[in-house]
Each structure stands twice: as structure tokens, then as C-alpha cells.
Amino acid sequence: MFEPGLVIREADGKYLDQLADMTVRFYRFNEEFDPAYSTRDDIANVAKDYIQESLQRDDVIILVALWNEEPAGFVRAEIRTHRLIKNGKYGALVELYVKPRYRRKGIASKLLEEAKRKLGEKGVVHVAAQFPAMNAIAERFYRKHGFRPWTQIFIQEVD
């Protein structure tokens, strides 16, 4: 399933532009599922700052999938703490994206597997995935990998 040309590694500043571009693609894709995900006009600049800041945080893991040395996808996870829950340290998969031409090659599964391993090394007990509720593609993917619903967030536009 996994091709020999695939390498998953921790991201660094070398991939900043590609990571920012994939972040924009991720949010624009999610915008299709829910207008609450509508992106800002200056998303490209904000995404670059967001990734750059994330690369410097100890509580964030960013992994990049390289297909024959070309960035093909990435995952960004945050380590969060819920102070009132036993073993309240958990990983939140905030962005997981694979470019269309690299899909159906097992890259997302490999990114997920490696992100879970890295989070476990940092003492994380549970991993949560975050995505729009109407994204059936993401729901199928995470269920296939053993995830189950944990919490719900409801949203409403303010009048």
C-alpha cells in the first residue's frame, strides 16, 4: 500500500511555502462542506504566519509527506490539556491534507499513524480528529482508523 518513494518527516522552515499552500487548500476544501469555514481574503499570508508560528511551538507537531521528495501532504496536530479529565492530555489533529494527485496511495493513513506515534512519545493518551461535521469523507477515514465520536460543537451565526 505504501510506496517506496514516500517519506514522512517532521516539517521545518524548508517546507514553509508548501505547507502554507496546503493549509489554504485544506480550509478551502472544508469551505465546501460548511460556509462557516469560509476563508479570509488574505488567507495565504495568514496561513504562512500560522505555519511559521506552529513550527516554533513545543505543543505542535507538523509532519510532511514527501513523495519522491515532493511535498504531497501534511498533518498538523496540537497537544491540548483538559484539566478536569483523568489523562486529560490529548492530541488534536487539526489539519490533515493530501494533494489530489497523491490521494489513494495510503499517504493520509501513514501521516495519521506517524502523528499518533509522535504524540504518544510526548505523553498523549488520546488523539482526537477535528473536521467539519458534514465532511463525510473525513468521517469515513477516521472511523476506518478506529476513531469514534467524542464531543460535539454546535455553531450558529449571531444575528
Explained architecture:
- This protein has one domain: Gcn5-related N-acetyltransferase (GNAT) (Aminopeptidase), CATH 3.40.630.
- The protein contains 4 helices and 5 strands; from the N terminus they run βααβββαβα.
- The protein has helices at 16-31, 43-55, 107-121, 136-144; strands at residues 6-10, 60-67, 70-81, 89-98, 126-129.
- β2 (60-67) and β3 (70-81) form a beta hairpin.
Write a concise keyword list for the protein shown above:
Aminopeptidase, single chain, 4 helices, 159 residues, alpha+beta
| Secondary structure tally, helices | 4
The percent range for strand residues is: 15-25%
Q: How many distinct folded domains? A: 1
- Indicate the radius of gyration in whole angstroms: 16 Å
Tell me which CATH architecture applies here: 3-Layer(aba) Sandwich
Summarize the main sheet: 5 strands, mixed
- The helix-and-strand class reads alpha+beta
Helix-residue proportion? 25-40%
The residue ranges in which pLDDT falls below 50 over 5 or more consecutive positions are none
Average pLDDT confidence is 93
Side by side, the strands of the main sheet go 1-2-3-4-5
What is the CATH T-level topology? Aminopeptidase
Note the overall shape.
globular
What separation lies between the terminal Cα atoms? Answer: 49 Å
DSSP, total strands: 5
CATH class: Alpha Beta
Please write the string of helix (H) and strand (E) elements: EHHEEEHEH
What do we call the CATH homologous superfamily?
Answer: Gcn5-related N-acetyltransferase (GNAT)
